[in-house]
Design goal:
By secondary structure, the chain is of the alpha/beta class. The protein has 8 helices and 5 strands; from the N terminus they run E-H-E-H-H-E-H-H-E-H-H-E-H. It binds thymidine-5'-phosphate.
């Protein structure tokens, strides 16, 4: 597989989407084919799963882990692998680490089992680089409120859940420093973009 696979992770309201867009433009300006995508919801099946996961009734913890993994299996098979095989740069909002943090740390599930489900779903495809935009639950909530949008099922979880998710992300990054770039999401947009490019540029050269 000859492309590059970059994922952005972090709590809700971390600013991932803005940074994904800036990075995708930067890569495009360098002549690469860029596929900007997200989970859940990067395929037609995924769009339905996203609706069920975020705007449906209460979802059992195990069902939740399996639905995110099902979205991921479809997405990797239909979008991500084909793009990487064409040599494209895939810039993706959320991936396996979101399942490890939200389901593996936020929910009372076994982290190893959650990891195994996603590894099975993806055939063990891991990103070359994962940017973790670390955000405090307080700042995330402030940003969410500023948008005026109604919180979805996950966003409506208690502060304690969001704290566990944040700590989960930080532990993942600590355990895998070669893959993760951890940035403080409260930094100005352009500063974050520059730091991300600083890490991506060497990947293009290699
Ligand atoms: P988004 O709003 O950033 O697109 O993400 C949708 C929500 O789904 C967000 O609250 C994080 C959550 N999520 C999980 O709980 N597990 C996962 O594996 C993924 C991809 C997202």
């Amino acid at each position: 597989m000859s492309g590059i696979f970059i994922t952005l992770e972090g709590g809700d309201g971390a600013g991932k989407t803005t940074q994904a867009e800036l990075l995708a433009s930067w890569l495009g300006e360098r002549g690469l084919e860029v596929v900007q995508t997200r989970e859940p919801g990067g395929t037609m099946l995924g769009a339905s799963l996203r609706e069920l996961l975020l705007h449906g009734e209460h979802v059992d913890d195990r069902a939740e882990a399996l639905l995110y993994a099902a979205d991921r299996a479809q997405h990797v098979s239909k979008v991500v692998r084909p793009a990487l095989e064409r040599g494209a740069a895939v810039v993706q909002d959320r991936y396996i680490d979101s399942s490890l943090a939200y389901q593996g740390a936020g929910r009372p599930l076994d982290l190893t089992e959650v990891r195994r489900i996603s590894e099975w779903a993806t055939g063990g495809l891991w990103p070359h680089l994962t940017v973790l935009l670390d955000v405090t639950p307080e700042l995330a909530q402030k940003r969410r409120e500023a948008t005026g949008e109604r919180a979805d099922r996950l966003e409506s979880e208690a502060a304690e859940f969001h704290r566990a998710v944040r700590e989960g992300f930080l532990r993942l990054a600590e355990a895998d420093p070669d893959r993760f770039l951890v940035l403080d999401a409260s930094l100005p947009r352009d500063e974050l973009h520059a730091a991300i490019i600083g890490q991506v540029a060497p990947l293009l050269a290699s």
